[in-house]
Every structure is written in C-alpha cells, then in structure tokens.
Amino acid sequence: MEETIGYEALFSSEEWESVDIVDWEPHGGGGVKHTVTVVAVDDGYQLGCDQGDFFDHVSDVRCAANLKRLHEEFEAVVVERTRLER
C-alpha cells in the first residue's frame, strides 16, 4: 500500500489529472473555514472564496469542483497552470 501525505489523499489519480495545474501552494491560515462558490458563466466557471483570498476561472466543471475542494481543504491557490485557458 502506498503512503500519502495529506493533500495527495484528497483526490483520486483521475481527479488530480483533471486539475490543470503544475504547482499550487498553501495560502491563508488562521483556522477560519473557507467556502468557495462556483458560478457558471458563458465561457466556463468562476470560483470565488468567501474570505476574498481566492478567485479563479476555468472552463471545465470537473476542474472547478476539484479546485473548490483543494482550496476549501487546504486553502491552496494555483501557482502555475499546465496550459492556457481560451
């Protein structure tokens, strides 16, 4: 059995593949629960955190759901994407 450390266990390998990021970093802290809202817009999905420290736009609903979970669980933000959004 393979060991995981925290964030790795948050997603299955398929879910990790759907998140188009190269790198992310923990952000925030302070023990306050962050809640991310996902809103469908004409060209994809906008994500925004109720704490005002996270905003993103993606075209894929699965990626949006996974980024929401990543931020809410670890207060993480995207540092670098694997490809540009159109």
Shape: globular
Q: Give the helix/strand class.
A: alpha+beta
The main sheet orders its strands as: 2-3-4
Arithmetic mean of pLDDT: 79
**Separate helix tally:** 2
Output the radius of gyration. 13 Å
Q: Element order, helices and strands?
A: HEEEEHE
Total number of strands: 5
Q: Which range does the strand content fall in?
A: 25-35%
Fraction in helix: 10-25%
Unreliable sequence segments: none
Q: How many strands, what sense, and barrel or not for the largest sheet?
A: 3 strands, antiparallel
N- to C-terminal distance: 40 Å
Question: How would you portray this structure in words?
Answer:
The chain is an alpha+beta fold and 86 residues long. It is built from two helices and five strands, in the order αββββαβ. It has helices spanning 13-18, 61-74, and strands at 21-26, 36-41, 44-49, 55-58, 76-81. It has a three-stranded antiparallel beta sheet with strand order 2-3-4, with helices on one face. The protein has a two-stranded antiparallel ribbon with strand order 1-5. A hairpin with a 2-residue loop joins β2 and β3. The protein starts with 12 loop residues before the first helix and ends in a 5-residue tail after the last strand. The mean pLDDT is 79.
Features:
86 residues; alpha+beta; three-stranded antiparallel beta sheet
Which SSEs are present, and which pair or pack?
Blueprint lengths: L12 H6 L2 E6 L9 E6 L2 E6 L5 E4 L2 H14 L1 E6 L5
Antiparallel strand pairs: 1-5, 2-3, 3-4
What's a quick, concise take on this entry?
The protein has 86 residues and is α+β, with helices and mostly antiparallel strands.
